[in-house]
Amino acid sequence: MLILNVQHWEGDKPQAMALLRLIADLEPAKREDVYLLVTCRFDGTFDEESIEYASQKFNITKFKTTRKATGWPNGPNQMAGESYLFCVDSFRNGRFPGATAVMFIEADCVPLRKAWISELYDEYKASGKQISGCWLKRADAGIEHVNGNCLISINFWRRCKGIFWPDVKGGWDATLRHHMLPVAHPSKLIWSDYQLGTPKNPWKGCDYLWAPKRFNDPSNALYGQDLFPCWYHGVKVMDGLECVRNRLINES
Are 163 and 172 in contact (CB under 8 A)? Predict the structure, then answer.
């Protein structure tokens, strides 16, 4: 059992809800083996229409955070930590029976295959590790860490209680790398590009999402391999969602 944790605040709410609808549309039938948690920030609101739409394919739980930080990095850090804590507490109280992992999903993501949920979960289980995600090295991200759009064991808190209150200067994932890396597996199915769609790294066209990806750092465990991910994190514009709809659902 996997918990998909779709997170948003008001600024990225339209893209997050478009992603939520796409995730639902890619599933042919309702999935009883996947829980979907929609998390919004303390000052946000839920898009009830989109949530109702997605409930045709998933059993959905809503959660509004209480921590008051807003800017980066503390805003998203506290949001991720509190939503994970909510999953753990809910699991311990019987709300998500059978759950083994939580996948953090930010608004700037796209799935690239219809079978992405099962592919990611199967890779996670086969690894035997507590974390499965895009493993970045210095040449790829400035610091070695597993990107936060990853699958994390529901029991990771036993190793790293600091995930609940990340007191950091940067992203929680990079800050907690010393706790995460020893129990992490480099995913071949998750790719991260922080700047795609911005002036620094402009949109490269629809085909780019499905083109082979390669890490830059020779010390990366996956260096030199052509990777064909089923999940892409870092699409800063709506173009990614639109081209996935065109490619996978035949919508113009």
Answer: yes
Given this model, what pLDDT does residue 166 score? 62
Q: Residue 84 carries which side chain, given as an amino acid letter? A: Y
Q: Which structure tokens are listed for 2?
A: 């996997």
Query: Which tokens belong to 1?
Result: 């059992």
Q: Which CATH class is domain 2-248?
A: alpha beta
Arithmetic mean of pLDDT, 53-72: 93
Where do the DSSP E strands lie in 41-118?
58-64, 101-105, 109-111
Domain ranges of the chain: 2-248
Let me know: does 232 contact 112? Beta carbons within 8 Å.
yes
**With 80 as the cut, is the pLDDT of residue 251 above it?**
no
Residue type, 238: M
* Per-residue CA distances from 36 to 7, 12, 105, 145, 155 (Å): 11, 18, 11, 26, 18
Beta-carbon contacts of 171 under 8 Å, excluding residues fewer than 6 positions away, are 73, 76, 77, 148
Which tokens is 234 given?
A: 């870092």
Phi first, then psi, for residue 186 (nearest 5°) are -75, 115
Helix, strand or coil, per DSSP, at residue 82 = helix
Is the separation of the CB atoms in 190 and 149 below 8 Å? yes
User: Quick one: which of 29, 34, 35 has its CA closest to 56?
Assistant: 29
pTM: 0.95
- CA-CA distance, 130 to 117, in Å (whole number)? 17
Query: Would you say residue 106 has pLDDT above 90?
Result: yes
Q: Tell me what the pLDDT averaged over the chain comes to.
A: 94
